[in-house]
Amino acid sequence: MDQDAQKMMMELQKTQQNLQAITQQAEKTQNELNGVKKALDELEDSEGQVYKSVGELLVERDRDSLEDELDEKKEDLEVRLKGLERKEEKLSKKMQENQKKFSQNFQG
User: Fold this and answer.
1) What is the pLDDT of residues 39-70, one digit of tens each?
2) CATH of the domain at 40
3) Domain residues for 78?
4) In Å, how far from its chain's centre is CA 45?
């Protein structure tokens, strides 16, 4: 394999690794977002005292301030997820373009 082909193959591998990392981050963020949404649903459906996990402890919290905190976290996670999805889409397109170029230049 000549240097151009080797260079292009390395670029493909790098893009694929970046895509995998972004996909994992997006999945982790989506899972965290789902957890926050579930906590907000539970908070809405429950009455009485509410607690927040802080390390190994459960600490009693004011319902309204906890709801505000969860809403803010939800918004932050949604923004982060959208950004990761955009990156994922760009990397996926780049990967497809590079694979096409590689096929045309070095296998055709």
Assistant:
1) 999 999 888 899 999 999 999 999 999 999 99
2) 1.10.287.370
3) 36-95
4) 28
Q: What is the pLDDT of residues 14-41, one digit of tens each?
A: 999 999 999 999 999 999 999 999 999 9
Q: Considering the entire predicted model, what is its pTM?
A: 0.83
Say if 62 falls within a structural domain: yes
CA distance 28 to 16: 18
The vertex-85 CA angle with 29 and 6, nearest 5°, equals: 110
C-alpha to C-alpha distance for 73 and 79, rounded to whole angstroms: 10
Count of the separate structural domains present in the chain: 1
Does residue 8 form part of some domain?
no
Q: Does residue 103 fall inside a structural domain?
A: no
- Computed on alpha carbons and rounded to an integer, the radius of gyration of the chain in Å comes to 22
Q: Is the pLDDT of residue 7 over 60?
A: yes
Phi and psi at 2, nearest 5°, equal -75, 175
Which secondary structure element, helix H or strand E, spans residue 105, and what is its range?
none
